[in-house]
UniProtKB/TrEMBL annotation:
<comment type="similarity">
    <text>Belongs to the peptidase M28 family. M28A subfamily.</text>
</comment>
<dbReference type="InterPro" id="IPR046450">
    <property type="entry name" value="PA_dom_sf"/>
</dbReference>
<dbReference type="Pfam" id="PF04389">
    <property type="entry name" value="Peptidase_M28"/>
</dbReference>
<keyword id="KW-0031">Aminopeptidase</keyword>
<protein>
    <submittedName>
        <fullName>Aminopeptidase PaaP</fullName>
    </submittedName>
</protein>
<dbReference type="InterPro" id="IPR041756">
    <property type="entry name" value="M28_SGAP-like"/>
</dbReference>
<feature type="domain" description="PA">
    <location>
        <begin position="187"/>
        <end position="275"/>
    </location>
</feature>
<feature type="compositionally biased region" description="Basic and acidic residues">
    <location>
        <begin position="544"/>
        <end position="553"/>
    </location>
</feature>
<keyword id="KW-0378">Hydrolase</keyword>
<dbReference type="InterPro" id="IPR045175">
    <property type="entry name" value="M28_fam"/>
</dbReference>
<keyword id="KW-0645">Protease</keyword>
<dbReference type="GO" id="GO:0004177">
    <property type="term" value="F:aminopeptidase activity"/>
</dbReference>
<keyword id="KW-0479">Metal-binding</keyword>
<keyword id="KW-0732">Signal</keyword>
<keyword id="KW-0862">Zinc</keyword>
<feature type="region of interest" description="Disordered">
    <location>
        <begin position="531"/>
        <end position="560"/>
    </location>
</feature>
<feature type="domain" description="Peptidase M28">
    <location>
        <begin position="298"/>
        <end position="512"/>
    </location>
</feature>
Amino acid sequence: MRARASRGLLAAIAAVSAMVPAVCAGPAGAAPAPEPSGGFFTGSFTGPFAGGSAGEAALPPGASPVPWAGAEAFRKSIKVPAVRRHLLRLQRIADDHGGIRASGTPGFDASAAYVAGLLRAAGYRVTLQEFEFPFFRDVDPPVLERVAPAARTYERGKDFRTMTYSGSGDVTAPVQGVDLALPPSPAPSSTSGCEASDFAGFTRGNIALIQRGTCSFQVKAELAQAAGAAGVILFNEGQAGEGPDDRRVLLNGTLGAPTVDIPVVGTTFAVGEELAAAGTTATLTTKTESDPHRRTRNVLAESRWGDPERVVMLGAHLDSVTDGPGINDNGSGTAGVLETALGASVLPTRNRLRFAFWGAEELGLLGSQHYVSTLPAAERAKIKLYLNFDMIASPNHIFGIYDGDDSDRVGAPAGPPGSDRIEKLFESYFTALDLPYKGTDFTGRSDYGPFIQAGIPAGGLFTGAEGIKTEEEAAAFGGEAGVAYDKCYHQRCDTIANVNDRALGVNTGAIATAAFVYAYARTLPGGGAAPGTVQPGSGGGGLAHDHGQDPGHSHTGVSR
């Protein structure tokens, strides 16, 4: 980094201290944290900056001597080549296991063993938290073809995808629309297929064509099967928008659980509108595997340093989809968090660091949901914030920061109190590097969801998935307008070649900065002021909890 940018980052972190006292304010005269070994630091821990800095003036009276210069040094110690080595290893694991690393497969087991082995060797207490989940995969590639009025073959991954937990079948039949709104209403409001009465007059043996909206995909598919449908085509609702608000793009969805036996696929709005034409006959073929009692695991690693009553948690999902190796989604977040954890292993922090690598995220946040739901209330209260990193190196990326304060006034409301402070910390990081950023909504599509529902402040970074980059975003971030942030999202081409090294480096630096700042902060977004200097502690810090099944794992709420 240029020297000017380095100085700017130090000043920005100090400025966050002044603007957001809950991040670092503490009693005047508090004892400094001890200086860790390992050569990461450029100055002593006796003041905010080694030798002073222009940013020091931004600290409020009585601010604690948190080592902000150390945060910059720690960030620099986390090297992109080391992060890429983790990605290369995950790619090799996928290559050795049928091209995938999905939960419930040998590729995921090998990925978990790799991550856990490195963390144990670095001195962390590692827990493999097992849980049961309903496994799903395509055994053979699905087929969707229009037979009449004119033949057309639709492309998997571009025009349609198998819905997670679809049944199997091979059917050629007329396509019958169910309570469709074409053209769509200006705002999302479709109730297509949400009530049994929508299927009055449905011809048994036909393929049901159903529009997205209002109720879950699972409800729609179950009602269609009950009405005698031989297959279901669910298509996006049709409203224009940006990112996850664009309801024209390919519908990637889950039925939540294997409750139907017939084939179910999701399509773009354009494909659905085309199939809605009178006289349409289609062929729909799926061959799938579902196992309602498959087991997988979360990898949880806890530092031996810091106050176990004040937990700073960082996480990324470790699993891929069953269609590809998942190197951007989410090898990138995994690698960034993993290398940060390895670097932080020698730090005698004030607060306890806990790192999570989630299983079965791609099937509905099942790993993180299981973890949060099985934590006793007292253990849950110890987690003062959760930082999530899911897809941090998309090839046509933006730099997205989760909108903790709902300042963008788009979609979901603000996160729990303290989420705004997390957002400000990440904003100051990008501002200091003269890099653009934008808010990204808490849509509930990643592992921060269960933490927010539990009232735990959350934040993190995201570089975009299947959404389409706008002209304004291309002007700000570079890349290509009118193209997906990640054209290989949930596809076999999500390989090591699908990773943008610049985005990977910038975001890994942000992960390291946030980890260090919150590891030493005297007060945290989730509340609770630290006592004096905390020495290494003992105890599980909330990891020793029941590993039974989470009864709420279907997570159908994300599929509307």
